[in-house]
Amino acid sequence: MTTIETKTTWTARNIWIKKWNKEAVFIEDRLDKYRSVWVPRTAIRNPQFKSKRDFGKDSIHYIYDVEINEEWWKANVRYRGFEFETNNGHRKSWWS
């Protein structure tokens, strides 16, 4: 009997956590590159707290540097599409 080893790839990312519970954290991208999503805690490791941002109206975000399971990220995170970005940094986009 042969066993197949699967190697998990972990990628360092800066995430903005808006909510959390025992099983998952809700992350939000403030730059609109990907849609907000619940990430299971098993797909995250080595969290390091960076800062806290208060946007008013009960909207507080906690910013962490974490390592995220790259296979889970590619399979579950939906990116928003951008046609192009102007040279002064403004994005002209279409929503996926």
Structural class: mainly beta
Order of the strands making up the biggest sheet: 3-2-1-5-4
What would the principal axes of the Cα set say about the shape? Answer: globular
In DSSP terms (H or I, runs of 4 or more residues), the helix count works out at 1
Q: End-to-end span in angstroms?
A: 45 Å
Mean pLDDT: 77
Number of strands: 7
Portion of residues within helices = under 10%
Order of helices and strands: EEEEEHEE
Main pleated sheet: 5 strands, antiparallel
Provide the β-strand percentage band.
Answer: over 45%
Instruction: Give the uncertain stretches in residue-range form.
Output: none
Q: Any idea what the radius of gyration is?
A: 16 Å
Key words describing this protein structure:
96 residues; mainly beta; five-stranded antiparallel β-sheet; two-stranded antiparallel sheet; 7% helix
Task: Describe what you observe in this structure.
The chain is mostly beta strands. The chain has a domain at 10-76. It is built from 1 helix and 7 strands; from the N terminus they run βββββαββ. A 5-stranded antiparallel sheet has the order 3-2-1-5-4. A hairpin with a 5-residue loop joins strand 4 (44-54) and strand 5. The chain is globular, with a radius of gyration of 16 Å. The termini are far apart. The model has no long low-confidence stretch (mean pLDDT 77).
Condensed summary:
The protein is built from one helix and seven strands. With 96 residues, it is mainly beta.
What's the arrangement of secondary structure elements?
Elements (H helix, E strand, L loop, with lengths): L9 E11 L3 E4 L9 E4 L3 E11 L5 E10 H7 L5 E4 L5 E3 L3
Antiparallel strand pairs: 1-2, 1-5, 2-3, 4-5, 6-7
